[in-house]
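Q: Got a minute? One more chain.
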Amino acid sequence: MLKDWKVTASWYLIPDYMREPIIKYVDEGVCDDEFLEAIFSNDLKGAFTSADYVNKRRIGHYVEFIMGYVPAIAHGSKDNFEQWCSIGGMNGYRFIRAEAEAA
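A: Always. Here it is, folded:
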């Protein structure tokens, strides 16, 4: 799943302009969007108050998408969000795993 997630993901759930920021967060651990930070941190109030009109109506779609395609360690709490950012997302995660396997 993780290797091909961008190909198999149900992108129809996510507005076009939000797809690249999601990819950047998952792959690189970089999130410059207050709404997405709240979504990945499981902060419903923050997500709702920071969402634009389109995203306010799609919060449930984001939850469905994240649960289906984003690694569990990358969402669910503020701590998970911050840790994912600190390791550099999937790129950093793969690097850490490769180092551990080589040791």
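A: The two ends are 25 Å apart (CA to CA).
Q: Perfect, thanks.
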